[in-house]
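Priority: medium. Attachment 1 of 2:
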């Protein structure tokens, strides 16, 4: 198991600003954040071959993120011996200018929860953006 890595804090800020003498407007450059996340996911899966899929969901995936929004990510693994609550520590991404909230599930956990009618996965699938899908597992993915 690889250890927890240090974040790389040298990413340009995704918070943009336009100012006039009386008004300051801030917005989140969502394209910059998604591009950075895509590269960070690529680096993460190179270290972790057990990763089958990575999904971005929530406000960044829907396109309604604002300054202060975080990146909601779901990482799907072939399997894991780590306890559920410890997994996000090992699958964190490099810093992309926003906080990240990483949920890590195994394929078996996903299948059990879908069979039980868990709507979280339906929401991720309908609003989410797949940032990575392993070619090894894409043919059996029903997610």
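Attachment 2 of 2:
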């Amino acid at each position: 198991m690889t250890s927890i890595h240090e974040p790389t804090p040298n990413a340009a800020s995704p918070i943009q600003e336009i100012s006039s003498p009386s008004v300051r407007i801030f917005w989140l450059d969502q394209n910059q954040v998604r591009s950075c996340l895509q590269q960070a996911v690529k680096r993460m899966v190179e270290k972790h071959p057990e990763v089958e899929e990575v999904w971005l969901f929530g406000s960044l995936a829907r396109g309604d993120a604002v300054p202060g929004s975080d990146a909601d990510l779901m990482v799907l693994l072939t399997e894991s011996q780590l306890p559920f609550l410890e997994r996000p520590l090992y699958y964190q991404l490099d810093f992309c200018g926003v906080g990240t909230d990483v949920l890590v599930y195994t394929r078996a956990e996903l299948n059990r929860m879908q069979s039980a009618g868990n709507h979280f996965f339906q929401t991720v699938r309908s609003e989410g953006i797949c940032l990575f899908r392993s070619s090894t597992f894409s043919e059996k993915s029903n997610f």
